[in-house]
Structure formats: C-alpha cells, structure tokens
Amino acid sequence: MHGLGNDFAVIDCFQQKFSLTPDQIRSLGDRHFGIGFDQMLVVGPARNNNADVSYRVYNNDGSEVAQCGNGARCIAAWLYERGIVRKEVITAETSEGLLKLYRLADGQVRVNMGVPRLEPAEIPLLAASRESRYPIIIDNQELIFSAVSMGNPHAVLYVSDVDKAPVQELGPKIQQSAMFPEGVNVGFMQIIGPGHIRLRVYERGAGETLACGSGACAALVAGRLDAKLAEEADVALPGGHLLVSWQGEGEPVWITGPATFVYEGRTVL
C-alpha cells in the first residue's frame, strides 16, 4: 500500500505470528532483492480491551518507530477493505497509546495524531529549555530549526525553495547530530501562504520519502507556533497533498489523506 507514495508492506498477523528480525526486515525492504518499502506495518489483534487492533511500524533499515501518519491511514483502509473492522471509527493500539482512525465517505482517512510534544526532554532534544527555534552547527554553518514530537522527533527548517533545498546533504547530517539522542526526522518547509506549504522530509531509517504524515503535522505545528500558518493547511509533498489542522497547544493534530492498495502476495524467507 502507499499513502501519497510513502509505501508500506502490510503484514497480516491475525492468522500468523510476527517473528521477523531486523536483518530480515532490511532484506524485505530492499527494492532490488526484496519487496521494497519505506516502512513495514504489522497489524494484529489488540491487547488493550479499548482497542480494535494493534499495529507496529518498522523502517526499512529494521528499526522500530512509534508513529506514522501515512501508515495509520493505510491500516484503516486495509482493515475496512478486508472486513476485519467495519467501523467508521477504528481504535488502534500503538506503542505510543491509542490512535483514532476515521474512515470518510470519500474513502479518505482522517487520523487524530495526538497532542504534539514541545518540551526538549519529550522530543527528545538536548537543549536547556524550550524555545520556538533552536540553533545547530552543520559544516561550520549555523542553521535554525523548530523541534516537535508527534510520537517521533522532528526538526523543521524553513527554506525559500523546497525544490532547491539540500535535503540529501543536510538531512543525514542533522539526523546524526548529538542534539538528537534518538535521531530525528528532518523537514524542509516552504511557506506559500497561511494555508499552503510545500514540504520534503528526510526520515529516520528510511531517507527521503515521497510523503511523511507525522512530518506534515510537525511542519504545521512549527508554522503555527511562529504565527506563520492558519489552523488548517494544505501540505504539498512530492507524492501529493495532505490536509492538516491544529487548533493550538494542548489540542491534537488532525491529518486527512488517501490510502492506496497496490498488490497482495506472499513471501518466504
């Protein structure tokens, strides 16, 4: 499946146990020798009585992450299409808690991504205190970024032209900075207007992807805190558009977008 080109291998664990090692996930994630995907989504029965299902997310390098906005939409569409959960509102159990997934009449999925975390210790970010923006030195050059956690850490940089942004050069260098003890997803945001931004994201464990749902949320939060964006914005990513909204501190971020089926199959390791 994919959400705006951010592609996933969805593993059905209602009828089988999940026992893949990080090496096996990396092997399957290879686009030449395996299936090829940005992330693997593992879906199975809920352990929590208040949830319909549980799911886990793995990057194609084998590392596990807590949150994935595009993946969450794909999970909702997959569950509904397969007849496993035929609710309009699905509660999914993740390592970060319960996630609400809303299937809309037009087939798109709206997700409550939770309340963004802004304190450095919660991101996590090595900084003495919370600031609206933070400096970082990369190749003897000072860059300024905003920091947000959407269940996974994000650094958001403003750029004048996202097409010319040095995503492949700066993304891994910022990601590997000691300021981010758990690594970071790096977003490069160009503001077109209060309700429209363009965004590219270099993700932990996957590199640049065609779309990043949690990255779109983090970008809107950063822009709202700087009074540059409205409560709702169209986020244009290389793979397509997401609608993101946030009313302000203490409120959850909402994301709406498509989820697309590509093919179904079996693999043997």
Task: Chart the SSEs and their pairings.
Layout: E1 2-3, E2 6-12, H1 22-29, E3 39-45, E4 53-59, E5 64-65, H2 69-81, E6 89-94, E7 97-103, E8 109-112, E9 134-138, E10 141-149, E11 153-158, H3 167-175, E12 185-193, E13 196-203, E14 207-209, H4 213-225, E15 232-237, E16 240-246, E17 253-257
Shape: globular
Determine the mean pLDDT: 95
The number of distinct helices, counting runs of at least 4 residues, comes to: 4
Distance between the termini: 21 Å
Output the CATH class name of the largest domain.
Alpha Beta
Write the H/E string, N to C: EEHEEEHEEEEEEHEEEHEEE
Q: Main beta sheet: strand number and arrangement?
A: 17 strands, mixed
By secondary-structure content and strand pairing, the structural class works out as: alpha+beta
Helix content estimate: 10-25%
Stretches where pLDDT falls below 50 for ≥5 residues? none
Number of strands: 17
Relevant CATH superfamily of the largest domain: Diaminopimelate Epimerase, Chain A, domain 1
How does this structure look, described?
With 269 residues, the protein is α+β, with helices and mostly antiparallel strands. It has two domains: 2-112, Diaminopimelate Epimerase, Chain A, domain 1, CATH 3.10.310.10; 120-256, Diaminopimelate Epimerase, Chain A, domain 1 (Roll). 16% of the residues lie in helices and 37% in strands. It has four helices and 17 strands. The chain has helices at 22-29, 69-81, 167-175, 213-225; strands at 2-3, 6-12, 39-45, 53-59, 64-65, 89-94, 97-103, 109-112, 134-138, 141-149, 153-158, 185-193, 196-203, 207-209, 232-237, 240-246, 253-257. It has a 17-stranded mixed beta sheet that branches. A hairpin with a 3-residue loop joins strand 10 (141-149) and strand 11 (153-158). It is globular, with a radius of gyration of 18 Å. The model has no long low-confidence stretch (mean pLDDT 95).
